[in-house]
Amino acid sequence: MAAIVTAAMLVIGDEILSGRTKDKNIGHLADVMTAVGIDLKEVRIVADDTAAIAGAVNALRAGHDYVFTTGGIGPTHDDITADAIAAAFGVPCRYDPPSYALLEAHYARRAMEFTEARRRMARMPEGAVPIDNPVSVAPGFRIGNVHVMAGVPQVFQAMIGNVLPTLRAGTKVLSLAIACPYGEGDIGTPLAAIQKAHPETSIGSYPRYVGQKFSTEIVVRGRSQDVIDAAGKEVEAMIEDIRKAKAIGENHSAEA
Amino acid sequence: MAAIVTAAMLVIGDEILSGRTKDKNIGHLADVMTAVGIDLKEVRIVADDTAAIAGAVNALRAGHDYVFTTGGIGPTHDDITADAIAAAFGVPCRYDPPSYALLEAHYARRAMEFTEARRRMARMPEGAVPIDNPVSVAPGFRIGNVHVMAGVPQVFQAMIGNVLPTLRAGTKVLSLAIACPYGEGDIGTPLAAIQKAHPETSIGSYPRYVGQKFSTEIVVRGRSQDVIDAAGKEVEAMIEDIRKAKAIGENHSAEA
Fold first, then answer.
1. Could you report the per-residue pLDDT of A14-47, keeping only the tens digit for each?
2. Theoretical Cys-Cys bridge with B213: which of A223, B31, B63, B254, CB 3.0 to 4.6 Å?
């Protein structure tokens, strides 16, 4: 039996919702989860608002094996993620002594003042475990099944790299991508029949619109190569059937 | 008094959650909403799953003035958005006669078969109003405060262009961006004091990490130029104060 492990992501930050910053972390986490066999089931983006963050975290951690958050763990007044996560778990937010010592030593080495703002980065909910930050020292943290990480992509990616070995991976979803020169309007009916005949696969079709013509990428997903190959063969045959029908009909349009 | 109008977005599609497709619509909607003075408050990404779509739509439409969805309105079996939205509103999903006629004529003109798959694109919940699609004809639709649009970016952008004139805009949020050569650890404490003294503004700081050094973009937002300018002057003075203090301390690090 395939092991199903699910995850959700929470992106925190006014700057994403205003359009000022374009998110780069969702696509990265999606790629990483797929690579290790964890199903990313939902993503939410919320503002720098305690109630919004806590509400989303509580909804997501109840419904999924893992939750990953990005953003709002820096040193400034709008970085309220640690407090909001503490509120979500109903525990106090306080300095983590090892993280405090790490940051204190880091700034001492650089002869930089360990300001109140910098000390803020050692705060995390009671019971949380730090997540190492090899890029810029200030840690993320894990509490329960929630992994709280930085929004700066370089730091987020490094933290996810540290977290991955601790996760229980599922059976990887394998996929087969088939380029189809026809639009979804041509393939929709026969493709639905193939999907129905192969319920152990998930067949998706992704339209592309280039040069005023639609084409499609058909993706067959499943947790064993055999089931994918069987459905894939039928998809190839379907494309060939459409080609023949169009040649007969002298209708070479690739419109949807 | 500033008029506050809020919006939420729902991105629908397995391909975004698997990482196969990188979303381009969130950033576009965020930019457009900011430009017209509507506050985008939340985004969710869910799978091609009726319960997930209907649950998210019902949560979002209850909490915001407008909801915008992208994805899942094409002709194939995995395009289940219209049915899921109908389920969310508790109404039947049926062919919209004007949209059916439009598509039928479109394919007749091109001598293309009006397949069952293509006819699917004329389906929408009872009570929905079509949203024109100038790119590829198949319409989106509006039901209540929910606007259902295509996931292909060119089509989504065209549909949003058609929807915008129908929306009630709020008082625009104006913003002032100030480049700051120092990291958040340097500015955190004084910036929090400026935010506290200017509660009618929202001051954000966005760290950048380039060449192993942090710098910051400080953004002052507000709904009148006067309040932004007053806070902005204090931010500029703060940066100058840090510069002087660092010159004295001979500490030129820009680390966080």
1. 999 999 999 999 999 999 999 999 999 999 999 9
2. B254
Compute CA distances A133 → A139, A195, B253, whole Å. 5, 44, 19
Distance from CA of A233 to the nearest CA of B (A): 19
pLDDT tens-digit readout, B212-232 = 788 999 999 999 999 999 999
Residues A137 and A140: their CA atoms lie apart, in Å, by: 9
Quickly list DSSP for B73-137: -SSSTT--HHHHHHHHHT--EEE-HHHHHHHHHHHHHTT----HHHHHTTEEETT-EEE--TTTS
B120 at interface of A, judged by CB pairs closer than 8 A: yes
Query: Residues 6 or more apart from A139 whose CB is under 8 A from it?
Result: A96, A99, A102, A121, A122, A124, A130, A131, A132, A133
DSSP A178: E
- B207: nearest CB among A74, A107, A116: A74
CB-nearest to B185 from A41, A75, A184 is A75
Beta strands A129-131 and A140-143 are: antiparallel
Token pair for B157: 């952008």
Residue whose entry in the numeric block shows the structure tokens 């049915």? B83
Q: Predicted confidence band at A1 (pLDDT cuts at 50, 70, 90)?
A: low
Could you tell me how many CB contacts below 8 A there are between chain A and chain B?
A: 225
Q: Are B176 and A102 in contact (CB under 8 A)?
A: no
Residues 10-39 of B with CB under 8 A from A: 11, 14-23, 26-27, 30-34, 39
ipTM above 0.85, yes or no: yes
pLDDT at A153 over 90: yes
A161's CB contacts (< 8 A; 6+ apart) are none
pLDDT tens per residue across span A46-56: 999 999 999 99
- Residue A224 contacts B, CB cutoff 8 Å: no
**For residue A186, which of A156, A154, A215, A221 has the smallest C-alpha distance?**
A215
pLDDT bracket for residue A195 (50, 70, 90): very high
Distance between terminal CA atoms of chain A?
38
Chain A residue closest in CA terms to B111: A251
Q: How far is B218 from chain A (nearest CA, A)?
A: 11
3-state secondary structure of B200: coil
Mean pLDDT, range B186-208, rounded to an integer: 92
If pLDDT is split at 50, 70 and 90, which confidence band does A246 have? confident
Q: Are strands A66-70 and B123-125 parallel, antiparallel or unpaired?
A: unpaired
Tokens 């780069």 -> residue? A24
- Tell me the pLDDT tens digit for each residue of B75-128: 999 999 999 999 999 999 999 999 999 999 999 999 889 999 999 999 999 999
